[in-house]
Specification:
Blueprint (H helix, E strand, L loop, with lengths): L1 E2 L15 E7 L9 H7 L7 E4 L9 H4 L8 E4 L3 H10 E6 L8 H8 L3 E5 L2 H7 L4 E3 L4 H13 L1 H15 L4 H16 L6 E2 L1
Parallel strand pairs: 1-8, 2-3, 2-5, 3-4, 5-6, 6-7
């Protein structure tokens, strides 16, 4: 079997002078994304926490579909990709304390924007971001808060982790992903059996 990691064209994502903000993006209602952990500690952090994404679960009845009231994070709602890219560009920290994540495209986008990453300590995220992110157990909100505070109060650590995430993101470019698929197609066309996992 051959694994082809996801990739992203870097043109839309770029680092800018970072601001005092923690950003997260994803389906707010999805327990796998674990946005409630950030929402629950937001009011205890000195930086604002911005949550971008849909808070309405399409699989539930309208009365139950909206994510519960905010615990302190600012909800931005669903954002156009260019607007979200601007948020990534200026965010000092990107947090994604996921319980489950096959790859994490928003993590890659944040890394391409030079954000310091705080991620759920799960195998898929460790596989891709080991040494380029700080990891927390997804259900340990106190440790999540402590790690965020470490980054907030230590600008040198924050800048170093931003540099590491940006450097690591270069391994996940669209060109590498395309080349991986092309190699598989060539192998298949030549009659060789290839199992591909993306």
């Amino acid at each position: 079997a051959r694994t082809i990691p996801n990739g992203r064209a870097p043109g839309l994502f770029r680092p800018e002078t970072k601001k005092a903000m923690v950003l997260a993006a994803g389906r707010l209602w999805d327990e796998a994304k674990n946005m409630q952990a950030l929402d629950c500690i937001a009011s205890s952090l000195p930086w604002p926490v911005w949550l971008a994404g849909d808070d309405r679960n399409p699989g539930q009845a309208p009365a139950d579909a909206v994510w519960p009231p905010s615990g302190g994070a600012l909800r931005l709602g669903p954002l156009a990709l260019r607007t979200l890219a601007d948020c990534f560009a200026f965010a000092g920290i990107y947090a994604h304390p996921a319980r489950y994540e096959p790859f994490g495209l928003t993590v890659l986008e944040a890394a391409m924007s030079g954000c310091a990453l705080v991620l759920g300590d799960i195998p898929s995220l460790r596989e891709n971001w080991e040494h380029a992110a700080l990891f927390v157990p997804p259900d340990d909100t106190e440790q999540l808060r402590a790690v965020l505070l470490d980054l907030i109060f230590d600008p040198q650590l924050r800048e170093e982790m931003g540099r590491r995430s940006l450097a690591r993101s270069k391994f996940f470019c669209a060109e590498a992903m395309g080349a991986g698929y092309l190699d598989v197609y060539i192998a298949v066309a030549a009659g060789r059996r290839v199992a591909c996992v993306s």
